[in-house]
């Protein structure tokens, strides 16, 4: 965006009044959206009003509508629920109620409304907008406002953000609150799994989703549930016999527990509800298993928002203000949505209509169509769950064998990828080997064949069950080649970080010397640093961001108690600043120093001055993040000494080095599902390539496209040849030469510090904050 255009945009905000409200059921992340709308609105020169208690506050007016300042939304990004309240409002469903609401908005000169809620709340906003002119005319007739005031406020602009834990709104891949709800569900499932194993119990877990089975589906995929009920795909008649048969089968093969997940809106083919208690009684009567029911209920709405929901909400909030600034009389009410990995604006009522079409298809028992209407991601999740939940014999034994290994530092989600790769490989009829301790283990012959049940229970485990080391092939090439020959390995799936990419590149470059290496190879990027070329997002980075975020939340809480304290927190990531940047956005950090965004002593001085000014307000705390290799000389110790010296008498400093806690812990729901999907897609791609290069009873793969990195690139999963990626990789600093997340840097600065200069905002990559390229880190 050019400087002149940006200046015009800022001028467009002057004199505007924007109001934001939350309505319907609360969802984690709503506060982050309120914060972003408020601060972006203030940044562009508009007046921003907070409407308390949703539409009820809009109708009642008075103290329910308050003008906000920059500090009004400080320290709320980490809070669950909505600090401005939400209430169901019958009055707003009537014209008389909407007339009162219009009067209250006009009183404050508000003609721009941002509504955060579900489809019902957003539909109400659109009705309000369509009636606006008529409502003002009525207010003029009744003498409540003058014609001049009516003329000045003649148009109401509406933008919606979807806040719903059910992810039941069509047109967006993820709604605000969904990821956090999945976190709550997986925390419960992980806890229940341990007690279920102890007592050899079956647990029936009921999750929210009266009309949409997304939470049940994704939690079932992330936990490896034995059976799953969702309203979009009722089980076939006679499901009771099949379910009990499968549960019994699982126990007979050594499993000590069964997990059944049921959406609250689950039905059978005739439309009759299937209750969790009915399923429990069925298992007890037919199998005699000790069975318990757990209804999660509103715990799914509670708790702190996940990192993803905080970042998503912040981006959507900024985009909402952009949409209001650019609105014209002909612009329909829009909703800010997530498509693939981009934020987009879509016509609100078109999305509402498609959402209604899903329910209509379900009511009319067109269930396959209902799944398709939910979107490609929903359909893929359902198909992959069915593939991996129960073993299906391969139609025929294939002539191919594959080996799977982990390389580099451990990352959450590695085990999920191994599990899905093993199981889909067995479904394809391949012989599947796993290798312990990476390339070093391959060189030592630590190779064993695995079966379907050998990877049971791996989904929720952190670290690497196979063991992983950083050893590269060039140190033991001869022995690796020997064991590739010995075990007749024709496909190699390497799951790991930059070492995994570099290792496969070394194997490919050695093909001319060793014919045994003319095999199909694939890299699944798995590293908390998110620094592997060929993908926007690596396995493990979501878990690491959440781990860092949770630590920073606690640190901020500590600073709130002691007052006038600044914490300098060091994160991992090597030279890659992804972890620092995204964590910084998620916790509302005052600054985040990274290698890719060079900084000078003048920048450090400006940050110290900002914190000095901040201590004069009610928010007497500071949080500064530093990537471990962001600068050769400006070390964490240096920053501590500088801040301590310059802030002497105003604030004191403390250092926290987060260290390896960022690598530990159970994988997040996203990393479990992302790993599962990448494992499936990688093996299917390898199977296809093996068929293509199989001639005369042997595999001979020597072209560049037979050794690839699988990755999520914007909207699609792509396979990029390792040799081509070499051209766009900085091997000295172990980084891709271009990194999408750098687009987030200015958003971090702007939402943290309202004193950011116009010049700084233009420099860098301002154009990436516009709606068409505002990337999002999740969407697979």
UniProtKB/TrEMBL annotation:
Pathway: Carbohydrate degradation; glycolysis; D-glyceraldehyde 3-phosphate and glycerone phosphate from D-glucose: step 3/4. ATP binds at residues 25, 88-89, 118-121. Its main location: cytoplasm. GO terms for molecular function: 6-phosphofructokinase activity; AMP binding; ATP binding; fructose-6-phosphate binding; identical protein binding; metal ion binding; monosaccharide binding. Allosterically activated by ADP, AMP, or fructose 2,6-bisphosphate, and allosterically inhibited by ATP or citrate. Residues 18-323, 402-685 form the Phosphofructokinase domain. Beta-D-fructose 2,6-bisphosphate binds at residues 470, 527-531, 565, 572-574, 628, 654, 660-663, 734. Keywords: Acetylation, Allosteric enzyme, ATP-binding, Cytoplasm, Glycolysis, Glycoprotein, Kinase, Magnesium, Metal-binding, Nucleotide-binding, Phosphoprotein, Transferase. It is found in: Cytoplasm. The active site is at 166 (proton acceptor). One of its GO terms (biological process) is fructose 1,6-bisphosphate metabolic process. Mg(2+) binds at residue 119. Its cofactor is Mg(2+). InterPro entries: 6-Pfructokinase_euk, ATP_PFK, PFK_vert-type, Phosphofructokinase_CS, Phosphofructokinase_dom, PKF_sf. Residues 1-390 are annotated as: N-terminal catalytic PFK domain 1. Substrate binds at residues 164-166, 201, 208-210, 264, 292, 298-301. It catalyses: beta-D-fructose 6-phosphate + ATP = beta-D-fructose 1,6-bisphosphate + ADP + H(+). One of its GO terms (cellular component) is membrane. Its EC number is 2.7.1.11. Catalyzes the phosphorylation of D-fructose 6-phosphate to fructose 1,6-bisphosphate by ATP, the first committing step of glycolysis. Negatively regulates the phagocyte oxidative burst in response to bacterial infection by controlling cellular NADPH biosynthesis and NADPH oxidase-derived reactive oxygen species. Upon macrophage activation, drives the metabolic switch toward glycolysis, thus preventing glucose turnover that produces NADPH via pentose phosphate pathway. Homo- and heterotetramers. Belongs to the phosphofructokinase type A (PFKA) family. ATP-dependent PFK group I subfamily. Eukaryotic two domain clade 'E' sub-subfamily. This is ATP-dependent 6-phosphofructokinase. It comes from Catharus ustulatus.
């Amino acid at each position: 965006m050019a400087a002149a255009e940006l200046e015009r945009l800022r001028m467009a905000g002057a004199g505007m009044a924007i109001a934001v409200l939350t309505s319907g059921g609360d969802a984690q992340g709503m506060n982050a959206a309120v914060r972003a709308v408020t601060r972006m609105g203030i940044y562009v020169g508009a007046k921003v009003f907070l409407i308390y208690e949703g539409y009820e506050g809009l109708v009642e007016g008075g103290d329910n509508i308050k003008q906000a300042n920059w500090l009004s939304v400080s320290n709320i990004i980490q809070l669950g629920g909505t600090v401005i309240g939400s209430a169901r409002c019958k009055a707003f469903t009537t014209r008389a109620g909407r007339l009162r609401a219009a009067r209250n908005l006009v009183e404050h000169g508000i003609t721009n409304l941002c509504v955060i809620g579900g489809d019902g709340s957003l539909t109400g906003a659109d009705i309000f907008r369509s009636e606006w002119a008529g409502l003002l005319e009525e207010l003029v007739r009744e003498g409540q406002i003058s014609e001049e005031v009516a003329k000045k406020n003649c148009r109401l602009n509406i933008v919606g953000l979807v806040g719903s834990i059910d992810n039941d709104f069509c047109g967006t891949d993820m709604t605000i609150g969904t990821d956090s709800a999945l976190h709550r569900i997986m925390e419960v499932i992980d806890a229940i799994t341990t007690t279920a194993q102890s007592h050899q119990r079956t647990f029936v877990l009921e999750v929210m989703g009266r009309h949409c089975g997304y939470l049940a589906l994704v939690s079932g995929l992330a936990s490896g549930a034995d059976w799953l009920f969702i309203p979009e795909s009722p089980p076939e008649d006679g499901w009771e016999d099949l379910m009990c048969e499968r549960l019994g089968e699982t126990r007979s093969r050594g499993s000590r527990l069964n997990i059944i997940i049921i959406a609250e809106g689950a039905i059978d083919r005739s439309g009759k509800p299937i209750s969790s208690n009915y399923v429990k009684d069925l298992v007890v009567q037919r199998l005699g298993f000790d069975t318990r029911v757990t209804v999660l209920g509103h715990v799914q709405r509670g708790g702190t928002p996940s990192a993803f929901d905080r970042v998503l909400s912040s981006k959507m909030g900024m985009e909402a203000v952009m949409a209001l600034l650019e609105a014209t009389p002909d612009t329909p009410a829009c909703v800010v949505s997530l498509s693939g990995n981009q934020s987009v604006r879509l016509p609100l009522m078109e999305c509402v209509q498609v959402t209604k079409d899903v329910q209509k298809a379900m009511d009319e028992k067109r269930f396959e169509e209902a799944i398709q209407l939910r979107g490609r991601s929903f359909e893929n999740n359902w198909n992959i769950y069915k593939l991996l939940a129960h073993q299906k014999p391969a139609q025929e034994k294939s002539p191919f064998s594959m080996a799977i290994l982990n390389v580099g530092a451990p990352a959450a989600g590695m085990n999920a990828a191994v599990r899905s790769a093993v199981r889909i490989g067995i479904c394809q009829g391949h012989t599947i080997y796993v290798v312990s301790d990476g390339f070093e283990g391959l060189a030592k012959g630590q190779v064993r064949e695995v079966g379907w049940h050998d990877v049971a229970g791996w989904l929720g485990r952190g670290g690497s069950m196979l063991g992983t080391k950083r050893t590269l092939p060039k140190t033991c090439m001869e022995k690796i080649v020997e064991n590739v020959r010995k075990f007749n390995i024709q496909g190699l799936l390497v799951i790991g970080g930059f070492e995994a990419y570099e290792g496969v590149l070394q194997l490919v470059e050695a093909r001319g010397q060793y014919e045994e290496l003319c095999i199909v190879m694939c890299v699944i990027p798995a590293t908390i640093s998110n620094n592997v070329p060929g993908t926007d997002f690596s396995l493990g980075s979501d878990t690491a961001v959440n781990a860092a975020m949770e630590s920073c939340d606690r640190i901020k809480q500590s600073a709130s108690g002691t007052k006038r304290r600044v914490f300098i927190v060091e994160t991992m990531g090597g030279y890659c600043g992804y972890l620092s940047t995204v964590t910084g956005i998620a916790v509302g950090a005052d600054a985040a120093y990274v290698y890719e965004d060079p900084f000078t002593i003048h920048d450090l001085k400006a940050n110290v001055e900002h914190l000095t000014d901040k201590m004069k307000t009610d928010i007497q705390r500071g949080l500064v993040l530093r990537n471990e290799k962001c600068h050769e000389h400006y070390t964490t110790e240096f920053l501590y000494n500088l801040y301590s010296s310059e802030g002497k008498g105003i604030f004191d400093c403390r250092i926290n080095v987060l260290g390896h806690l960022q690598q530990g812990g159970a994988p997040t729901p996203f990393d479990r599902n992302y790993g599962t999907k990448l494992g499936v897609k990688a093996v299917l791609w390898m199977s296809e390539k093996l068929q293509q290069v199989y001639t005369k009873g042997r595999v001979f793969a020597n072209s560049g496209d037979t050794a690839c990195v699988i990755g999520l690139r914007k909207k699609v999963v792509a396979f990029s040849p390792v040799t081509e990626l070499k051209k766009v990789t900085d091997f000295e600093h172990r980084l891709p030469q271009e990194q999408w997340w750098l687009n987030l840097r200015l958003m971090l600065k702007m939402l943290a510090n309202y004193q950011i200069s116009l010049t700084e905002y233009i420099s860098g990559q301002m154009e990436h904050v516009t709606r068409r390229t505002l990337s999002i880190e999740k969407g697979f």
